[in-house]
């Protein structure tokens, strides 16, 4: 199944599930409220007859998490190598995942134009990522059970102000600017997506491919990420985890390639589809 949040004619945002070329409205206030239901309760909230054509309907980000988006740094070997090379440092792989967060105010909709400020940063960069949405409250999950906590998967673009990332040393500020986390276009459930560790993932800038890899190349697989994050810390339904980006990001290119006003970004993940956003920098 594919879950969305869509904009209806009166301007309200409503949750729904995609059925062929239509959206069936879900009768909870938000998609996050739907995810917060116990799994056996969810089907009762599907509306019986409220259908909207998918084509031409504006989609919002599928859900807004109650707290920061959890992110993973350097989770593809070749990206870790290119980052070390570009920074002039020795490559040292961590023994555990490197977690950081993006503020929930960074969330942006699929197809939305991202309005970024030139006075804040001159080095906006792209990062194509697979996002995981948690579906149950959980803590201290063993790795072999971790995928049972997943509600679904989506595409995410971890837009980053590289100069702020360097200046502030820690990554939160450079990762959390408004509209720097487009997410969607929908959440695909595990039964439809299949193996999340065997998906092609790519990024295109103005139609030119910049990143191409597979989620099979993650250093820490999704189950390990969930298990490590849940150690001693409760995960909540609707929490979003961005699982890292492969090689090819802008700052590590020679010469570096940063986003410019008018650029079109596309994150393309097998089994999910394309998350598309334009950039407006002023």
SSE arrangement:
Layout: E1 2-7, E2 13-19, E3 22-26, H1 31-36, E4 46-53, E5 59-60, E6 69-73, H2 77-87, E7 98-102, E8 107-108, E9 113-116, E10 124-125, E11 128-134, E12 150-157, E13 160-161, H3 162-168, H4 172-175, E14 181-188, H5 190-193, E15 200-205, E16 208-214, H6 222-229, E17 240-242, E18 264-269, E19 273-281
Parallel strand pairs: 6-17, 8-14, 9-19
Antiparallel strand pairs: 1-2, 1-5, 1-14, 2-3, 3-4, 6-7, 10-13, 11-12, 11-17, 12-14, 15-16, 15-18, 18-19
Please give the domain count.
2
The major pleated sheet works out as: 12 strands, mixed
Return the string of H and E elements: EEEHEEEHEEEEEEEHHEHEEHEEE
Taken as a percent bin, the fraction of beta residues is 35-45%
CATH architecture of the largest domain, by name, is Alpha-Beta Complex
CATH superfamily of the largest domain: Fumarylacetoacetase-like, C-terminal domain
Rg, Å, rounded: 18 Å
Helix and strand content put the structural class at mainly beta
Termini, distance in Å? 39 Å
Approximately how much helix is present in the residues?
10-25%
Tally of separate helices: 6
What characteristics describe this protein?
mainly beta, Fumarylacetoacetate hydrolase, domain 2, twelve-stranded mixed sheet, five-stranded mixed sheet, 6 helices, 19 strands, globular
